[in-house]
Design a protein that fits this description.
39% of the residues lie in helices and 18% in strands. With 404 residues, it is of the alpha/beta class. It has two domains: 7-57 and 302-402, Aspartate Aminotransferase, domain 1, CATH 3.90.1150.10; 71-299, Aspartate Aminotransferase, domain 2. The strands form four sheets. It has a seven-stranded mixed β-sheet with strand order 4-12-11-10-7-5-6, with helices on both faces. The chain has a four-stranded mixed β-sheet with strand order 1-2-3-15. Strands 13-14-17-16 form a four-stranded antiparallel β-sheet. A hairpin with a 4-residue loop joins strand 2 (32-35) and strand 3. The two termini are 31 Å apart. The relative contact order is 0.15.
Length: 404
């Protein structure tokens, strides 16, 4: 620990677009984290669904060290072995035939939206530019992706925004049927809306989107930044449905904490990104790709994925038992290890307070808006850690209920 580094220092030297907790974590191992004072926490947050294999997984540390001693960065003037290896793995594991690498989910989505418009113009017409997205979606913080997400709180002050983006109600197929036309170049959807409160897309909704996109020659884009890499119990959430997208974006757990994003698509669509139409200085760098390659090998394992579904049942059973006694939640929902607990009307607006009480108990959780707590722990979190974390959550729930 560096005694000269304190939470006060953040306010002095960091741009104030974040308001982090008053603690500063300094070490992590598995599903445990320790702060500067040595206090231990159980991690149900997972770096917002990033640390899919927990903190400092031995295999990932070894991959990072090995590549770090060979080659870090080249730029895209040259390619590299880890990038090609990772792209082959992703194609072998999914519908995709080609991959574009970026540094984040926002960048992967930016590439997807640009590609959708370019493909439409290449194959249909210059007027085929509309992107349909859904209310309360979240696709990133670049100007284009925040505009497609459409949440006013993230757009305010940055106008004028990119145009020809239409926002419609989530899980409302009739509204899509009414709006979509031959001017629509793409429909983008999260299989589970994360920031909106862990809201799963209904199977009939996704199937309807696929049919409507086919009818109007529009691309169906799945934003799997949060739901991908085993989070739902399938490698990617689309694999647990009857729907295959045209473009899929991944990030977060793809590198398990090492920054990397990816856009996956077919060869015919990828052709519209010809040489120099898009790019990234760091995208596909060997260091990140080497770690992501090992992460994908570990996560794309039937036993691990089955374990995610088993842990889901443990979490759901435990949360329901807590709620039957304490009664704070009106709904507990989600898939795999992406779970949302919505507060009852009497407690709405207090999700962040519950997060604070949980932290005091030694538990890290997340929120998804003001009314929902979000759990996104390691996919291999030990069962004793689940049980202890749920006990800590119960104490936090009681503290909120009692007004401590």
């Amino acid at each position: 620990m560096d005694a000269t580094i304190t939470r006060h220092g953040f306010d002095e030297v960091m741009v104030p677009n974040y308001a982090p907790s008053q603690i500063i974590p300094v070490r992590g191992s598995g599903s445990r984290v320790w702060d500067q004072s040595g206090k231990e926490y159980i991690d149900f947050a997972g770096g917002i669904a990033v640390n899919a294999l927990g903190h400092c997984h031995t295999e990932l540390v070894n991959a990072l060290k090995a590549q770090g001693e060979q080659l870090w960065h080249l730029s895209n003037v040259w390619t590299n072995e880890p990038a090609i290896r990772l792209a082959r793995q992703l194609c072998a594991a999914t519908f995709a035939e080609q991959v574009y690498f970026a540094n984040s989910g926002a960048e992967a989505n930016e590439a997807a939206f640009k590609l959708a418009r370019k493909y439409a113009k290449d194959h249909y017409s210059a007027e085929k530019t509309e992107i349909i997205a859904f209310n309360n979606a979240f696709h990133g913080r670049t100007l284009f992706t925040v505009s497609v997400g459409g949440q006013e709180k993230y757009c305010r002050g940055f106008e004028p925004l990119p145009g020809d983006i239409t926002h419609l109600p989530f899980n409302d197929l009739a509204s899509i049927e009414y709006q979509i036309s031959d001017r629509t170049c793409a429909v983008v959807v999260e299989p589970i809306q994360g920031e909106a409160g862990i809201l799963p897309a209904e199977p009939i909704f996704l199937e309807g989107l696929r049919a409507l996109c086919d009818k109007h020659n529009a691309l169906l884009i799945f934003d799997e930044i949060q739901t991908g890499m085993g989070r739902t119990g399938d490698l990617f959430a689309y694999q647990g449905t009857k729907v295959t997208p045209d473009i899929l974006t991944s990030a977060k757990a793809l590198g398990c904490g090492v920054p990397i994003g990816a856009m996956l698509t077919t060869k015919i669509i990828a052709e519209s990104f010809s040489v120099a139409t898009h790019g990234s200085t760091y995208g596909g760098n060997p260091l990140a790709c080497a770690v992501a390659s090992r992460a994908l090998e570990l996560i794309n394992d039937p036993t691990l994925l089955a374990g995610v579904k088993q842990r889901h049942q443990t979490f759901m059973s435990g949360l329901q038992q807590l709620n039957s006694k304490i009664g704070l939640f009106s709904d507990i929902r989600g898939q795999g290890l992406l779970i949302g607990c919505e507060l009852k009307p009497a407690w709405q607006g207090k999700a962040r307070e519950l997060l604070t009480f949980a932290q005091e108990q030694g538990l890290m959780i997340l929120i998804a808006g003001p009314d929902v707590i979000r759990l996104a722990p390691s996919l291999i979190i030990p069962y004793p850690d689940i049980n202890k974390g749920l006990q800590q959550l119960a104490q936090a729930m009681l503290a909120l209920k009692m007004g401590y």
